[in-house]
Fold this protein.
Amino acid sequence: MNVSDFELIAQLLKERSGLALNKDKAYLLESRLNPVARKWNFAGFDELAQAVRAGRDEALLVEVTEAMTTNESFFFRDQKPFEQFTGMVLPHLLESRKNQRSIRIWSAACSSGQEPYTLAMLLKENAAKLEGWKVDIVATDLSNQILDKARAGLYSQFEVQRGLPITLLVKYFKQTGERWQIDEGIRKMVKFQKFNLLDDMKPLGRFDVVFCRNVLIYFDPPTKSKILANVAEQMPADGFLYLGGAETVLGTTDRFQVLTGQRGIYTLAGDGQTPVRAAG
């Protein structure tokens, strides 16, 4: 791959998705885009780059972008965030929202759906506490292809073995050939839609909890700051933001602060912290 081809694709990705690629990620470009080149009957990466440079086929540009922005996901990833959700966040919301009896959750950059489905299963496990409540889970991603997979809720043996407790596999999945399909009732709890984190978030509405995990690491500092500022505008004063284990708001934005005594979970910055206590 020559330098001009790398810069061309990197610029396309930056403009369309916010993804910032360094030159040491050239191998990633080739590994992810070679299958796209084959699908489009190009002789190789060079021909694909020529077609991108011509810019005449929007479908190709979309496919290149989606191939580079599809990230790995698995059920109950890192475990701790979901323990925080059921042990602290959900009890807090049940108390603070008891008059309106409504909760909205956003799984941003949801990939193939494991994160929002994990949340849906946890809420199903707490169904008795949520009787009479309206709970919305909105899951968004940039890729149409990955959203189709998420909506289908079909996963390989390898995918369901990664983090999913056997009790929940038995309870909420059925085997279909060599794959496992999540229960229709769980699928209906999640609304999947295409969304670019660079776009205006206002049409999505406001959210009590935002999961934006393991995606900001792919953006440059100005883009991270802009996205976090926009997320803050969509949250109430006592809302919660989840970031990935390798992500932080420090040095990026002053709109959020770490929840005291916790990792990976943030509240809006202000005069005081959201009063949260563990259930028990």
The chain has a mean pLDDT of 89.
